[in-house]
Amino acid sequence: MIFADKLIQLRKQKGWSQEELAEKMDVTRQSVSKWEGAQSVPDIERLVQLSELFEVSLDYLLKDDIADTCEHYEEQEKEMRKLSMADAKSFLRAKASTAKPVAAGVLLCILSPVCLLNLGVLSESRQGFISENLAGGLGLIVLLIFVAIAVVVFILNGSKMQQFEFMEKEPFETDYGICEMVNDYRNQYRQTFTKNITIGVCLCILAVIPLFCGIGINEEDDLLLIRMLSLGFIIAGIGIYLIVRVGIIWSGFSMLLQENDFSKSKKERKAVVEAVTVAYWLIITAVFLVYSFVTNNWKMSWIIWVAAGVLYPIIPAILNSLKKKNR
User: Fold this and answer.
1) Distances from the Cα of 114 to the Cαs of 70, 129, 233, 266, 293, in angstroms?
2) Reported pTM
3) Which of 39, 169, 203, 327 has its CA 20 to 30 A from that of 192?
4) Strand residues in the chain grouped as ranges (E)
């Protein structure tokens, strides 16, 4: 067995990706890929570091005729999925094709309460051309239709990514050259990503301006305030649309490179976070529906979703702190 094969075997027995080994060795992932592809051999300093890291002798690493008889490595080699260049390109195309529809689905969810808010205020206005019950019913129907369309969009586009689900949950191997290709694509997309994120964040910040303007014009005119609030929802929705659209494509690069939220350590926590997230939003939905039906205060109950969204980032932080305490 040559050095390249031994290195692959040792790394897989540890359950490490090429990226993780590169970090431990303080080298680039491309260097590790070349070592395993028998395109180059590390210098003596790196070889010593490898022998210490894997607890094997230099003779074992360098001499092809020495077999590994250490009981520490008699366990079955952990298999990792292999991602080809064609698979990587197919994955990036799928990410790009789902980015806009999924972002549009998020926009629909954000805009879903707008009709309910406006009809609720109209039912209480002096004209009174629509009853409160009818306004609440129609507004709720529109809200549910928007959410239902968004859910269909999420499911249809999620099915396109189904074959790549393993990339979010488990370590995998990539063919030589994929990392260079992904880094090139990411560098080309960086300017578009930065521009859309900047515009999106600015729109989210500026979304409160219409409401402040309405308060300044006439704070007692509920219809004006709701219209200004609705305009704020639209502005914020557009901003979030831009952020989600480019964020989906950007996350594809990180998934292929197994960086940031898609590193091995983060993947191990993902299952727990997903379970807690599902439970969290189910509880929020139940609270929203129960409160709205009991109080019939549909024009204000949407605040529950805003509060839930603000509080949601706290959940991963709590899970991370609990994991650290258990170590």
Assistant:
1) 67, 19, 8, 37, 18
2) 0.63
3) 169
4) 81-83, 172-174
